[in-house]
Design goal:
By secondary structure, the protein is mainly α. The protein has seven helices and no strands.
Protein backbone atom coordinates (compact mmCIF):
# COMPACT_ATOMS: atom_id res chain seq x y z
CA UNK A 1 0.00 0.00 0.00
CA UNK A 2 1.37 3.39 -0.95
CA UNK A 3 1.84 5.57 2.13
CA UNK A 4 3.66 8.38 0.33
CA UNK A 5 0.51 10.51 -0.06
CA UNK A 6 0.70 11.56 3.60
CA UNK A 7 1.40 15.26 3.84
CA UNK A 8 0.35 16.43 7.31
CA UNK A 9 0.28 13.12 9.19
CA UNK A 10 3.88 11.91 8.90
CA UNK A 11 6.33 10.63 11.46
CA UNK A 12 4.09 8.74 13.85
CA UNK A 13 5.43 7.55 17.17
CA UNK A 14 5.02 3.97 15.89
CA UNK A 15 5.86 4.75 12.25
CA UNK A 16 7.84 1.55 11.81
CA UNK A 17 4.91 -0.66 12.82
CA UNK A 18 2.56 1.50 10.75
CA UNK A 19 4.69 1.02 7.62
CA UNK A 20 5.18 -2.70 8.18
CA UNK A 21 1.45 -3.27 8.70
CA UNK A 22 0.61 -1.32 5.55
CA UNK A 23 3.15 -3.45 3.65
CA UNK A 24 1.67 -6.66 5.03
CA UNK A 25 -1.84 -5.60 4.09
CA UNK A 26 -0.73 -4.96 0.53
CA UNK A 27 1.33 -8.17 0.24
CA UNK A 28 0.15 -10.76 -2.21
CA UNK A 29 -1.37 -8.18 -4.52
CA UNK A 30 -0.30 -7.94 -8.14
CA UNK A 31 1.25 -11.41 -8.16
CA UNK A 32 3.73 -10.73 -5.36
CA UNK A 33 5.20 -13.89 -3.88
CA UNK A 34 4.70 -14.26 -0.15
CA UNK A 35 7.64 -15.94 1.55
CA UNK A 36 8.91 -16.94 4.97
CA UNK A 37 10.13 -13.39 5.64
CA UNK A 38 6.59 -12.08 5.19
CA UNK A 39 5.30 -14.82 7.50
CA UNK A 40 7.79 -13.84 10.22
CA UNK A 41 6.85 -10.19 9.76
CA UNK A 42 3.17 -11.05 10.25
CA UNK A 43 3.95 -12.66 13.59
CA UNK A 44 6.22 -9.78 14.64
CA UNK A 45 3.56 -7.18 13.84
CA UNK A 46 0.91 -9.23 15.66
CA UNK A 47 3.16 -9.25 18.71
CA UNK A 48 3.66 -5.48 18.61
CA UNK A 49 -0.08 -4.84 18.27
CA UNK A 50 -0.72 -7.13 21.25
CA UNK A 51 1.86 -5.25 23.32
CA UNK A 52 0.24 -1.93 22.42
CA UNK A 53 -3.18 -3.35 23.26
CA UNK A 54 -1.95 -4.34 26.70
CA UNK A 55 -0.17 -1.01 27.27
CA UNK A 56 -3.00 1.25 26.10
CA UNK A 57 -6.13 -0.80 26.77
CA UNK A 58 -7.14 -1.44 23.17
CA UNK A 59 -10.20 -3.60 22.58
CA UNK A 60 -11.85 -4.85 19.40
CA UNK A 61 -10.10 -4.62 16.05
CA UNK A 62 -6.47 -3.88 16.94
CA UNK A 63 -5.70 -2.50 13.48
CA UNK A 64 -8.51 0.03 13.85
CA UNK A 65 -7.40 0.82 17.40
CA UNK A 66 -3.83 1.31 16.21
CA UNK A 67 -4.82 3.64 13.36
CA UNK A 68 -7.02 5.66 15.71
CA UNK A 69 -4.18 5.80 18.23
CA UNK A 70 -1.80 7.10 15.55
CA UNK A 71 -4.24 9.83 14.57
CA UNK A 72 -5.12 10.86 18.10
CA UNK A 73 -1.51 11.03 19.27
CA UNK A 74 0.00 12.88 16.34
CA UNK A 75 0.55 16.55 17.00
CA UNK A 76 0.96 18.55 13.80
CA UNK A 77 0.05 21.93 12.34
CA UNK A 78 -3.50 20.82 11.54
CA UNK A 79 -4.31 19.15 14.87
CA UNK A 80 -2.82 22.05 16.83
CA UNK A 81 -4.71 24.69 14.86
CA UNK A 82 -7.96 22.72 15.24
CA UNK A 83 -7.46 22.51 19.01
CA UNK A 84 -7.02 26.27 19.20
CA UNK A 85 -9.50 27.60 16.62
CA UNK A 86 -11.35 24.65 15.10
CA UNK A 87 -11.15 23.72 11.44
CA UNK A 88 -10.73 27.03 9.65
CA UNK A 89 -10.51 25.58 6.14
CA UNK A 90 -7.75 26.65 3.83
CA UNK A 91 -4.85 24.69 2.38
CA UNK A 92 -3.90 23.00 5.64
CA UNK A 93 -7.41 21.62 5.98
CA UNK A 94 -7.38 20.37 2.38
CA UNK A 95 -4.04 18.63 2.92
CA UNK A 96 -5.27 17.00 6.13
CA UNK A 97 -8.41 15.77 4.36
CA UNK A 98 -6.21 14.07 1.76
CA UNK A 99 -4.38 12.31 4.60
CA UNK A 100 -7.70 11.32 6.18
CA UNK A 101 -8.70 9.63 2.91
CA UNK A 102 -5.53 7.51 3.06
CA UNK A 103 -6.44 6.62 6.65
CA UNK A 104 -9.94 5.63 5.55
CA UNK A 105 -8.43 3.35 2.90
CA UNK A 106 -6.19 1.75 5.53
CA UNK A 107 -9.11 1.47 7.95
CA UNK A 108 -11.04 -0.46 5.28
CA UNK A 109 -8.33 -3.14 5.12
CA UNK A 110 -9.43 -6.42 6.68
CA UNK A 111 -6.60 -7.77 8.83
CA UNK A 112 -8.22 -11.21 8.89
CA UNK A 113 -6.81 -11.79 5.40
CA UNK A 114 -3.37 -11.87 7.03
CA UNK A 115 -4.25 -15.29 8.48
CA UNK A 116 -3.01 -16.59 5.12
CA UNK A 117 0.48 -15.40 6.11
CA UNK A 118 0.37 -17.39 9.34
CA UNK A 119 -0.43 -20.67 7.61
CA UNK A 120 -4.12 -20.39 8.28
CA UNK A 121 -3.64 -19.96 12.03
CA UNK A 122 -6.33 -17.45 13.05
CA UNK A 123 -3.88 -14.98 14.60
CA UNK A 124 -5.28 -12.00 12.72
CA UNK A 125 -8.89 -13.09 13.09
CA UNK A 126 -8.31 -13.02 16.84
CA UNK A 127 -6.71 -9.57 16.61
CA UNK A 128 -9.71 -8.33 14.62
CA UNK A 129 -11.89 -9.00 17.66
CA UNK A 130 -9.45 -8.68 20.54
CA UNK A 131 -10.82 -9.08 24.05
CA UNK A 132 -8.45 -7.90 26.79
CA UNK A 133 -7.77 -9.85 29.95
CA UNK A 134 -10.01 -8.74 32.77
CA UNK A 135 -7.47 -8.69 35.56
CA UNK A 136 -9.09 -5.95 37.61
CA UNK A 137 -6.34 -3.53 36.66
CA UNK A 138 -7.56 -2.27 33.32
CA UNK A 139 -7.98 1.42 32.59
CA UNK A 140 -11.74 0.92 32.52
CA UNK A 141 -11.67 -0.61 36.02
CA UNK A 142 -9.53 2.25 37.33
CA UNK A 143 -11.87 4.79 35.74
CA UNK A 144 -14.95 3.08 37.18
CA UNK A 145 -13.28 2.82 40.58
CA UNK A 146 -12.44 6.51 40.77
CA UNK A 147 -15.71 7.54 39.20
CA UNK A 148 -17.56 5.62 41.90
CA UNK A 149 -15.39 7.12 44.64
CA UNK A 150 -15.89 10.67 43.36
CA UNK A 151 -19.67 10.07 43.23
CA UNK A 152 -19.60 8.88 46.84
CA UNK A 153 -17.53 11.92 47.79
CA UNK A 154 -19.97 14.30 46.09
CA UNK A 155 -22.96 12.61 47.73
CA UNK A 156 -21.36 13.06 51.18
CA UNK A 157 -20.97 16.80 50.61
Amino acid sequence: MDRTPFIVYRGFRYQNLFDRMADLLSSGKEGEIIGEECREEAYACANELLELAADYGFEGNLWHCFLSFCLANHENAYSTSCEIRGDMGGTLSHMAKQDFQVFMDLFACDIRKLDALTGGTPVWSELASYVPVDDGNSLRDVHEHFNGKSWLFVRKL
